[in-house]
Amino acid sequence: MKPLSERGQAMPETALFAVLAILMAFGLLSWIPVHRARTAATAAAYACSQFLSQSPDPARAKRNAVNVAWQTLNATWSGTKGVNYRVQVSPPGGPGRPGSCRVSFQAPALFNGFLGLSSGGWNSEWFISRSETWKARWR
Fold this sequence. Notes:
About 45% of the residues lie in helices and about 15% in strands.
């Protein structure tokens, strides 16, 4: 019996490896918008919570916190075109009580037509902020 030759085996292996490498590259590239959106949402939620804790007036604190969150999300550094955001703020219920900021985001799925993926769901980043009791004496 004649042994089988390994001639011509390198070409199919190379083609298979190339296809797998391309699919992995597309998969890694598709994580970039999600990572950027999460980073922007985290920064916005943190900034929001910091502004929420800085004002003794809960109504003004909520307005300032929402404004700073949207300014952070709309900044040119974020590079999150196509990402949908929602900002929810719960102001402190009283002096020294906690308040919270939640920034939800939905990032687009890259290569959706090529890979047949569905659109991503909503994710959230949030922070709880407690206004300092001494600031309640500002009133």
